[in-house]
Amino acid sequence: MKNKRGQDVNPLPVVVGIILLLAVAGVLILGFTKGWQVFEFWIPSNNVQTIATQCNIACVGGNQYDFCTLPRTLNDPTQKNKNGFDANGVLPVTCKDFSDTTKATALGGYKIPACPSLTC
């Protein structure tokens, strides 16, 4: 009879498991310390609805600075290097720019309503 002190263990699954654990831990640490926006480049999306909501809040609240002057950063990956967007599909403009139909059409046709109660 052989002296069996334990099972034969293949170290490969253990090493792979440790590497996966370290990768997941690294992603979690990076996400919680640097912010989850670090991973946004993997998921291209636009923020037109967010800007429309922010502009509407500024209009309803009568906040002239937020509507007329505060620059908003529009992200639209479909507009890379077009209509004033940079290579990443980013364009800094104000709510007033979006609500001006001439500029909005030139920017790509975003329909963010004007604010008649504010004069810029």
Overview of the structural elements:
There is one protein chain. With 120 residues, this protein is mostly helical. The chain folds into 2 domains: 11-42; 48-107, no CATH class. Helix content is 45%, strand content 7%. It has helices spanning 11-34, 48-60, 64-68, 95-99, 101-107, and strands spanning 72-75, 90-93.
Alpha-carbon distance between the termini?
93 Å
> Which residues form runs of ≥5 with pLDDT under 50?
none
Helix content class: 40-55%
Mean pLDDT: 78
- Overall tally of structural domains: 2
DSSP strand content: 5-15%
**Count of strand segments:** 2
Order of helices and strands: HHHEEHH
**C-alpha Rg (nearest Å):** 25 Å
Q: What does the main sheet amount to?
A: 2 strands, antiparallel
Return the structural class.
Answer: mainly alpha
Shape: elongated
Provide the descriptors you would attach to this structure in a database record.
120 residues; mainly alpha; 2 strands; 7% strand; elongated
Short structural description:
The protein has 120 residues and is mainly α. The protein is built from five helices and two strands. It folds into two domains: 11-42; 48-107, no CATH class.
